[in-house]
Amino acid sequence: MATLLLLGSGEFEPWSHGVEAEALAGATGDGRVAILPTASAPEGDAVFGRWGRMGLDHYAERGVPTEVVPVRTRDDARRDDLADRIRGASMVYFSGGKPQYLAEVMDGTPCWTAVRHLLDRGGVYAGCSAGAMIASRSREQRVSKPRRGTGWLFGMGLVPHTTFGVHWDKVRRIPGAGLFLTSGIDDGAWFVGIDERTAILGDGERWTVRGLGAVTVRGARGRAIYRDGDHFEATVPR
User: Are 98 and 31 in contact (CB under 8 A)?
Assistant: First the structure.
């Protein structure tokens, strides 16, 4: 069964230690967390390096073995040696940045195949902000074609029936922004908006909320809001 940990923001901050330990408790692999700050690569090596160091420091606080896998470009993502470093880990962690860039770098590469292998054999996929957004359903998995300007263009299909939004508390404060961003989502699909410093942990259908904010879930029967400790289901439409 797949295990996914998706955060709306706040990667490598103290609030997330508990839910990360919960995710890793049942994970297969060699115990490592493989961190990929790939989504931040367009901002330059200094930013990429800073996110990597933050991740290393964060997990060192709890004695969790961690390494940064230096996937900055699509050429890097094609390297079998870097894919091998992902494949054996217990958790792969994609931190924030630009979701479209992250999807373009990873799609169809040996490194993405390694991510899918890790997830299929019992490891954890963790993603914050951009890393969470690419877990969304892919363009090919949509039933209807989204209107221009409204479609998620970066879903990699890890959860084929759901689209994930991040920083959702900020989005809600902008009049009309939430409606605009979700208006291109199929009626039969789920939308899950994750607030900042908030996470969901689950298998793609059954989820638990952890953290400081809320999670907004929209499905065929309407909208609901969940907070720390709450459970919700977003099952495959029948």
Answer: no
